[in-house]
Amino acid sequence: MLSLPLRASAPGAPLRLLALGAHADDVEIGAGGTLLCLAQSHDLDALIVVLSADDRRAAEARASAAAFLTGCKVTVETHDLADGRFPAEWNSAKEILEAVSSAFSPDVVLGPSRSDAHQDHRVLADLIPTVFRDHLVLGYEIPKWDGDLGQPAVYVPISEEVLERKVKLLWEHFASQRDREWFDEEAFRGLARLRGIECRTRFAEAFRCGKLALSL
Fold this sequence. Notes:
Layout: E1 15-21, H1 26-41, E2 44-50, H2 55-68, E3 73-78, H3 90-103, E4 108-112, H4 119-131, E5 136-140, E6 154-158, H5 160-173, H6 185-198, E7 203-208
Parallel strand pairs: 1-2, 1-4, 2-3, 4-5
Antiparallel strand pairs: 5-7, 6-7
Helix pairs in contact: 1-5, 2-5, 3-4, 5-6
């Protein structure tokens, strides 16, 4: 398995990260370990955009971003699209992404996978490459009832310490989700262990990538 470093497009500049979520906890569930690793290893300029969040969920998103990206420059932008109704919110979602792209040029974009079965996640995933055509886009995965995880191609190894920190922060910052049957510490740890097996490490997060151009 080939390992490729992630770096800023301009030498000496911070790595510009855009993380997109349909809901307030999506980014952290799918890529929380990756966020923690990036905060440790890079000078980071991050923008997190959540498309569906009421006041409580928006507060959760802001507090979580500060905890996962401690010491980094991070901005959180939230919107109020109807939860569970993104197919009907297609135009509004597209306009939000276009506004983001005009104001922020990322080196890497994290968003839901296009194979995600949740209607909100899938609409966002389908829109991302229509707006961010010349960027590295990595699609994170979220375990759920639908059984849509599939076979990823990109892995970020994470340490046990990072995994435990991710799980702790998820439980701490998303109190609104604690009564959901899928919001389960064992599920998050189990998926990380399985993805670790697939890339010959102990734990990992996995992503899908539609297109990637190599600079030789």
